[in-house]
Amino acid sequence: MQQTARALKKCIAASLLKICLLFCGILVLIPGVSLGAIIWSGDFETGDFLQYHASDDPNKPFYWGFPQYCWPQQPSRGIGDGSCGEIVTSPVRHGSYAAKLTVKNSINGSEPEDCDMSGTNCTRRRSEVTVQGTMSAYYNGIPYMSERWLSVSYWVPSDWSDAGSGWGVIVMQIKGAYEAGRSGHSPWVELNLKNGYWQLNHRWAPEENAGSSLMPWQQNMFYNPTYPTPTNWPDGLADFPNVEASQAALASVNKGGWTDFIFHIKFDARGSQEGGAGFLKMWKREGSGSWVHILDIRPKVITRGGMTFDHGIANYRPPGTTHNGGFGPRYGMYMTKDQVWGLQNNRVLYLDNIKVGDENSGFHELDPEGGKAAPIIAPSAPPAFRKVQ
């Protein structure tokens, strides 16, 4: 104890308290102390969209899918009327500003101007902001095998309605770097608003640079208020820390109020039998209520749809000719045309508190209320692996 005290005193004198705490192993004795770092912030507190800038120019916004005529206003460049992307002062989840994103209906929009892919794909619509082009290395906000914390808060307007078919409205995507020659490029993690509830999709493939359209449907996993069930995919229920609480939280959209999400992710495509150490965890909170731990997905042997396999987390995205590998998140709205075109009102979604934290981050860095209501994060027990018959 005396040696520890002398070491601590020496560290304080040298203004190296954090380093000392690590080496002395006494961090657990000082509540509230965190060595985490926010490595990127997209909370709109600059009063504009420049946190989402092009990787080669911090003064150039990097939008994804906004029709050019309604980009967030850029008077210096003479484009963008701001009708699809605005910085607002209300509603705001944290700080002074939030973002209002809009996808237009048939009354306010037009074709091909509002179509996806620079007006070329009129079966889809979107307004998104992306971290993929913003970090110092393209697509590498979340390097493969790294550990990251992510946060985002959504305000879903009270007039939000369901329409159309398909996947619903995607409000978050985490995509891997695209590699030419691979068929399909669906996100490996995806959060949707669908039929009046939240749904989390997780795709996994062991093959390097796998194209999602080549994957068996059993490896396109999803979680919502009614799926999995004990009969259609009992192994999937193990990914809910508390089945009843998790599915109830996914069933509540909290229209007209803020909903916070925090993710703790490590992408490792190896299965449990190969030593896979990946995980995908998700928490949700409405307003200033309690956090609900919705998902804790780990590598394990599962059976789904008559197929038994040892699944990991996401996919391996190595460096390529136009990127350095890894994954990047997008936030906003992405949908099929029929999800918005026939609505009486435009689709509107508000975003705030978007952050990416390193492996030492946690609720105190990502929670818009400072982690005051955050649950204690204890080391999880290793998952119980079911033997293959």
Explain what you see:
The protein is mostly beta strands and 389 residues long. It contains five helices and 19 strands. Strands 1, 5, 6, 8, 13, 14, 15 and 19 form an eight-stranded antiparallel beta sheet that branches. The chain has a seven-stranded antiparallel beta sheet with strand order 4-7-18-9-10-11-12. A two-stranded antiparallel ribbon has the order 2-3.
State which percent range the strand residues make up.
25-35%
Largest sheet: 8 strands, antiparallel
Oligomer: single chain
Radius of gyration: 22 Å
Instruction: Determine the number of helices (DSSP H or I, runs of at least 4 residues).
Output: 5
Helical fraction equals under 10%
How many DSSP-defined strands?
19
Q: Secondary-structure element order, as H and E? A: HHEEEEEEHEEEEEEHEEEEEEEH
Gap from first CA to last CA = 53 Å
Structural class, from helix and strand content? mainly beta
How much is the average pLDDT? 82
Which ranges are low-confidence, i.e. pLDDT below 50, for 5 or more consecutive residues? 1-34, 376-389
Q: What gross morphology would you assign?
A: globular
